Amino acid sequence: MTMKYVLGNKTEGDGKHSPKGIIVLEDTTEYISYAPKEEIKAQDRRPFDLLVIINPKLKKRSNRSALFFEGCLSVDGFRAVVERHLDVEVTGFGRDGQPIKVDASGWQARILQHECDHLDGTLYVDKMVTRTFRTVQNLDLPLAEGCPKLGAR
């Protein structure tokens, strides 16, 4: 099966003739090196190579979740706390047109959810803990009283 087949013909499962969308993501050792070590550990952040998924379908694999600051170039210069599942499975098609399944946890699971949300027209600000929205320059300020603590729940 080729990518042209996936994009232009009936695909397995949902029977659509055109893609719902394509997500592209990676988290390299270089990107991770800019974050504080405590944050990397708390977020369970590990490098992974470029990943392309066509027509992604996401489902949670556990009820575990975590709250962390999240940002996006669509709302550049700002961050907010978002609760996300810690364990997800994403199925779809790879860039070679072959079926792909990704089991992800930690930060990779967060990125997959964030990117799949984009395909549904959802940004992190639609899911954020409202009182945590701030500029990147103010990330180190304490959370407002009553806001949930960062980390796994």
From TrEMBL:
Keyword annotations from UniProtKB, A to Z: Chloroplast, Hydrolase, Metal-binding, Plastid, Protein biosynthesis, Transit peptide
CDD domains in alphabetical order: Pep_deformylase
Keyword Ubl conjugation assigned: no
Pfam families, sorted: Pep_deformylase (PF01327)
Enzyme Commission number(s): 3.5.1.88
UniProt GO molecular function: metal ion binding; peptide deformylase activity
Cross-referenced InterPro entries: Peptide_deformylase, Peptide_deformylase_sf
Catalyses which reaction(s): N-terminal N-formyl-L-methionyl-[peptide] + H2O = N-terminal L-methionyl-[peptide] + formate
GO CC terms, sorted: chloroplast; mitochondrion
Secretion signal span: none
Main location: plastid
Gene3D superfamilies in alphabetical order: Peptide deformylase
Gene Ontology biological process terms from the UniProt entry: translation
Compartments, as annotated in UniProt: Plastid, Chloroplast
Biological role stated in the UniProt entry: Removes the formyl group from the N-terminal Met of newly synthesized proteins.
Family from the record: Belongs to the polypeptide deformylase family.
Name this protein carries in UniProt: Peptide deformylase
Gene source species: Gossypium aridum (American cotton)
